[in-house]
Amino acid sequence: MTADVVIIGAGIVGSSIAFHLTKAGCRNVLVVEREPHQGLGSTGKSMGGVRAQFATDINTRMSLYSIPFFARFEQETGHPSGYQSNGYLFVATNEKERQYLASNYERQVALGLRGAELLKPEDIVRILPQIYATDIVGGGFCQSDGFVDPYSVMRGFMARASERGAQLWRRAEVTGIQSAGGAVSGVTTTRGPVATRVVVNAAGAWAAQIAGMAGLDLPVVPLRRQLVPTEPFSELPRQLPMVIDMSNGFHFRPEGLGFLMAWNDPDETPGYKTNFDPAFVEKILTRAVRRVPCFESAEVNPRRCWAGLYEMTPDHHAILGESPDMQGLFFANGFSGHGVMHSPATGRILSELILEGESRLLDAAPLGPDRFAKGRLLEETAVL
Ligand SMILES: Cc1cc2nc3c(=O)[nH]c(=O)nc-3n(C[C@H](O)[C@H](O)[C@H](O)COP(=O)(O)OP(=O)(O)OC[C@H]3O[C@@H](n4cnc5c(N)ncnc54)[C@H](O)[C@@H]3O)c2cc1C
């Protein structure tokens, strides 16, 4: 078996790369997935939030391609993305947070983001009359931010890639990466060997293991993330944006007839933990009720809550590009909570890097895998 490109992992990132490669005319693409179905990694666990309101230019640029792509996803793939432009509302509770939103806003507007705005406390109360507003000093909002259905996006990318000739192997695990003279020559899988000159690591939270197969270190660690849906809840407006309480990172958005809540527990430790901890319900509801007191009467069934893995890097930015240590080994890893929203830009960038040697969409060098050895780390403080 021979392939022009082997992609390891059929989550939303591997699927987008397969889509963009086949769109650009590269047809002999093989995607290798160890699970019996797509979506059993982080993609199927995601909250589906998409936003362009970031603190670094590179993350905003990734979203400036990705969000309009979600909006026209059905034309591109024939499948729905579930994009809902409800917006993201960042709520600042002190002057430092307000200043932070103001300086981010300047950068976002300079990069061409339309629809971003700074809000006064009374604007926020107009959007969410039930919010506890005594300590609110301002906010940031962008209407084109919102949510997508990650599973549907992943399936849409892969279905279109398959129509254009890509192959998806399920229940096939990559067990080794071969090289000759410092360049990739193939992979071994539980379905047999595949000769190839290009391998893409799209293995999500397992990315470091794949890099290890090539004898390389990749600083990506798994970190559990837990989500809590409420039962149907009618005391808040249905069209709410994603609302983020900047004082502690608690955020929530409408989902079905209820709301989906998330919070980054600072006591969480790295590891492959995917069980939901029932004690988390109390922790998150305490934050929820503090900001939106009527959540006091929201019901939560712990059996409907779930957990998945973030793939964290030391600077909370993705690692995109060819390994400086092995020709033909590409990374699309370490999205640190943004892999769904940045999947369209990632697919396009990786496709261009592989086929043309450089990315025309945007200069992806700041996300290059060499930045750790060179000490060129980025700083994104708006991490959710
Ligand atoms: C609770 C939660 C909420 C989130 N919320 C958001 C959000 O609101 N917005 C956002 O943008 N992102 C969010 N994320 C992050 C996002 O889900 C991930 O960044 C994204 O799904 C990563 O996609 P992926 O394709 O790289 O990884 P995955 O979906 O994990 O796919 C990787 C695949 O690689 C396969 N694999 C691994 N090793 C091998 C091997 N050796 N051989 C073959 N296959 C292999 C796995 O089985 C898996 O299917 C959230 C994540 C979690 C857990």
How is the topology of this model organized?
Elements: E1 5-8, H1 12-23, E2 29-32, E3 49-50, H2 57-71, H3 73-77, E4 88-92, H4 95-110, E5 116-119, H5 121-127, E6 138-142, E7 146-147, H6 150-163, E8 167-169, E9 174-180, E10 183-189, E11 192-195, E12 199-201, H7 207-213, E13 221-229, E14 242-245, E15 251-255, E16 258-262, H8 279-291, E17 306-312, E18 319-322, E19 329-333, H9 343-356, H10 371-374
Helix pairs in contact: 1-6, 1-9, 2-9
Characterise this structure.
The protein has 384 residues and is of the alpha/beta class. It contains 10 helices and 19 strands. The protein is 28% helix and 23% strand. The longest helix has 16 residues, at 95-110. The chain has helices spanning 12-23, 57-71, 73-77, 95-110, 121-127, 150-163, 207-213, 279-291, 343-356, 371-374; strands at residues 5-8, 29-32, 49-50, 88-92, 116-119, 138-142, 146-147, 167-169, 174-180, 183-189, 192-195, 199-201, 221-229, 242-245, 251-255, 258-262, 306-312, 319-322, 329-333. Helix 1 (12-23) crosses helix 9 and helix 2 (57-71) packs across helix 9 (343-356). The strands form 4 sheets. It has an 8-stranded mixed beta sheet, with helices on both faces. A 6-stranded mixed beta sheet has the order 8-2-1-12-19-18, sandwiched between helices. Strands 9-10-11 form a 3-stranded antiparallel beta sheet, with no helix packed on it. A hairpin with a 2-residue loop joins strand 15 and strand 16 (258-262). It is globular and about 65 Å long. Bound molecules: flavin-adenine dinucleotide. Residues 8-14, 32-35, 40-43, 45-49, 173-174, 202-206, 225, 227, 308-311, 335, 337-341 line the site of flavin-adenine dinucleotide (FAD).
